[in-house]
Structure formats: C-alpha cells, structure tokens
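Figure 2 data, in text form.
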Amino acid sequence: MLKSNLNNLNGWILLDKQKGITSRQAVTRISKILGVNKIGHGGTLDPMATGVLPIAIGEATKLISIIQNKNKKYSFTIKWGESTDTDDIEGKIVKKTDIRPNKKDVYKVLSEFVGTINQIPPIFSAVKVNGERSYNLARKNISINHKPRPINIYKLTLNKIINIDHAEFEVICGKGTYIRSLARDIAEKLNTSGHVTKLRRHFVGNFKEKDTIFIDFFQEIIHSPSVLNKIKPIEKVLDDIPALFLTETEARKLRQGQKIKLSSLKFNNDFIIEHPNYQKFDRVYTLSENKLVGLIEINAGLVKPKRIINYN
C-alpha cells in the first residue's frame, strides 16, 4: 500500500477481474492497495465471471451511472441438460433432462432473443425486492417472483458447439441484461435445461479488454506503482459524448452553479457547427484547458451544470 495520501486521485482502472472474487471484493482490495476511500465499480460481474470491470476512483465515481448504461459484450458457455437455482455453475442442480439440442436447433431460436425482449432476472441477483436484495431473500428460501423487464440484445451468435453437453455463445447487449437468464431462456426455448458454466465480459462501452490490467488478488502483497501506471483519465468514459470547450473563466462560473448563455461562450460556434442537433443531446461534457469540468445540459439557449467534477 502507498504511504502517501492519494485521495485526490481521479480516474479509471480497467480491471480484468479474475474468477472467484466478487466485484465488491475487487474494489475493496484496490482501495487498500492505493489507499483511497472514494471508489466504486461500473457494472457488477458475478464471482464466476471474468473480464472487464471498470473501477472508478475519486471524482470518476460521479460517472459510474454513465458506464453502467453502456452496451456490453460477453462470451458465455451453456451446459445443456441441467438447470441450477442460480442459473450458473455455482448453484445447486434443481432439474435434469436428457434432451440435447444440435447446432441446427440452436440456430433456429437465436433470432427470438435479438432486439427488445422481456427477461426475468435470476432469483440470485442484486435486484431489490421491497428494499432487500433478491439474493438475500433467496438464501433465506423466501419465494421470489420477479416481473419480466425489457432489455436490448443487439447481437447474439453461436460461436461453437464444444461437445454434446456444451455450447459457446457471444452477445452484445444493453443495460440490465442478465446472461444467466439469457442462457436459461435459450435452453427453455430448446425444450431442455441449461446453465452458465463460463462467462467473460469483453467490453463495457469504450472500455476494451485490451486495455485491462490483471491483478491476482489471491497474492498477499500487491505493489501499487504498477496499478497507478494504468489509471485512465476520468473523461475516458465520455469518448462517445459531445464535448463543449470552455475558457477557465466560463468553467469557473459553471463550477459555481451558474447558468451561461450558449451564445456568449468563446468556443460556442465550433460546437454548434460540429453538432448542429445539439439540442437533442441528453448530455454534453465540458473541458477547460483539456481538463474535465463536468456534465452539462443545453436547454433554451442556456448551458446548465448537471454534475461538476472537483479535483481538489
């Protein structure tokens, strides 16, 4: 752990989460390694899952909701013939069947899971029921009936048939998608049972697998410099959102909570030319001297601060 105080550190660590730990445990360990208190993660991965886990440090925590809304890509393996109470390999087997789908069967049903579909979350999930997490109720053997929720599946492909009992898939999906539920429902559509035995996340928005770092949390000692060298800028998560440049004087006004006329901004013309439909944007971010100021909204000709980033 660093001896110096790094609680003014801001940015993202793109962790390649290993199997066997929760997302919360990964965050807690990194907090101890770096000696920072303000930290969180963007998009939970189950303990049995691996892959891209964005971890926000400092003021980057203000942008966690943005990364959670981004599209995600996963690869996953389904084992046919067995369903579990958790819909993955860590649960207890609750049903068995001898039915095994072939490749032709699988191809026939995949299109039914692309687009906006309704999905019932697993009972072992973080969905809240009357203020309590679903997985806590499930562990107490309290009956849970989640309502179907609309989710978006943009692409779903069969990568390969591994053997008679296993098949590997790849999916690009939107917010709120449970891969365990997707696997369960694909199996049911094929008149069999199934659960996830392997799950990996390849990207979250513009946070790619190739940019991740791997930290073996089962080691007793992890040195912080290697982690610090991999921190991404706080605005990295905003790469696909329009940017409005400000002078330092204009930025100061926004930081003080003031509204500013768009027409009065020094660089307003550049922004309007590049984004003629800016009034349709639900969010814009601002930069001053290449430093993130915050998120804004532009309405009725006024630039209004929505979420200001404070570096001190």
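Caption note: The chain has three domains: 11-69+206-236, 72-204, 241-308.
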